[in-house]
Design a protein that fits this description.
This protein is an alpha/beta fold and 371 residues long. It has 17 helices and 13 strands. Bound molecules: uridine-5'-diphosphate. Uridine-5'-diphosphate (UDP) binds next to helix 1, helix 13 and helix 14.
Length: 371
């Protein structure tokens, strides 16, 4: 990757992030920016397993600023982060602010940049689920309408923006930075073999699952139904449990249902990628997993009402209502090898692994005043 250090003064680009997927998808941009980058961590995800270990594995230094807004309500988090970012920008305004995705942190970064009239870059712009019940949908729509440079992963995302009247020169199709993140950290065949051996797993004979969305884990009936079905899949199910979901299972008294699956701590990124790539299939409500599956070519049952990632729907991803997991998965199980073969040659719609370089070019132009 080109070295952009000289073109930009130290600390001139503030990258605002606060969760695991933001670190994953901004890692190569941060590294490419070098000393020009000032990482501001809001603390939305504050524990080691969901944040620090991800910075470490991508070789990113400790954030220069940590705002500590974890464990609050949505409105509390957004309000506190906007206010703290405002103080920071008032003290020393960066030339550009970069945010990614659709979290409360993303929106807070966008609002603070807007209030201080600092040009805003939105990485992974233009995604739409058209499901207004999801807070993430509002976060991404609002951020897109505030952004000056919108780095969209696909033509579908560009078309979504055009429908909302956002079709200026600042909309650039870059691909999705998740591709370089996965390609950079996916363990090789030997490491994957060792990973499975250390956990007593057989390739293609287990299911990997993640759940953390409020729509699934904040409702005792839904969460219970999900866990019940995971326990009945007829395969070993490995469930790295998000701390939020673990807390909810305890609150709702669902611990007995966890006994039918193998609950483990959230995994580091390379481990999670290695186990995903060797699994029979995944069952998840994650956004990022849907994209990653198209890179390591595994099918995913996505337990959600909608997806903002239609590019992988019907190939790598099947959407399931909360009571349809067993039915969908058992269809696949009948001949999982055939399913894997059918996916093996489908290219990922998320690009060539150079999205971060294109995003960096856009940021450099903004900082140097060419854009
Ligand atoms: N992930 C991980 N370890 C785990 C579970 C997930 O590294 O134990 C990664 C996964 O590969 C994906 C990201 O975390 O890139 C997804 O994070 P999350 O589900 O929290 O957010 P979302 O993608 O739904 O925004």
């Amino acid at each position: 990757m080109q070295d952009h250090d000289n073109a930009m003064p130290p600390g001139s680009v503030a990258v605002v992030l606060g969760t695991r997927p933001e670190i994953i998808k901004l890692a190569h941009v941060i590294r490419g920016l070098g000393p020009a980058c000032r990482v501001v961590h809001t603390g939305q995800h504050f524990d080691f397993g969901l944040s620090e270990s991800f910075l470490e594995v991508f070789g990113i230094a400790e954030p220069s600023t940590f705002l500590g807004v974890g464990g609050m309500t949505r409105v509390g988090q957004i309000g506190a982060a906007v206010s703290a970012l405002g103080d920071l920008f008032a003290e020393e305004a960066p030339r550009v602010v970069v945010v990614q995705g659709d979290t409360n942190t993303t929106l807070a970064g966008a609002l603070a940049a807007n209030a201080y009239e600092i040009p805003l870059v939105h990485v992974e712009a233009g995604l739409r689920s058209y499901d207004r019940r999801m807070p993430e949908e509002h976060n991404r729509v609002l951020t897109d309408h505030l952004a000056d440079l919108l780095c969209v992963p696909t033509e579908t995302a560009r078309a979504n923006l055009a429908r909302e009247g956002i079709s200026h020169d600042g909309v650039v199709v870059t691909g999705n930075t998740v591709v370089e993140a996965v390609l950079g950290l996916m363990p090789g065949p030997e490491a994957r073999h060792d990973l499975l051996a250390s956990r007593g797993l057989t390739a293609g004979r287990y299911v990997l699952s993640t759940f953390h969305r409020p729509e699934n884990v904040d409702d005792p009936d839904r969460f219970g139904l999900i866990l019940e079905q995971l326990g009945e899949l007829g395969h070993r199910v490995v469930l790295p449990l998000h701390p939020r979901s673990r807390g909810m299972a305890r609150t709702f008294g669902l611990e007995s249902l966890l006994e039918a699956v193998e609950v483990i701590e959230p995994l580091g990124y390379p481990e999670f990628l290695g186990l995903s790539a060797e699994s029979a299939y995944l069952v998840s409500d994650s956004g990022g997993v849907q994209e990653e599956a198209s890179i390591y070519k595994r099918p995913v049952v996505v337990v959600r009402r909608s997806t903002e990632r239609p590019e992988v729907l019907g190939t790598f991803v099947r959407l399931a209502h909360v009571d349809e997991i067993t039915e969908l998965a058992s269809g696949w199980l009948a001949d999982i090898e055939a399913v894997h073969d059918s996916l093996a040659d489908i290219p990922t719609p998320y690009g060539d692994g150079h999205a971060s370089e294109r995003i960096l070019e856009g940021i450099v132009s903004m900082v140097s005043g060419d854009a």
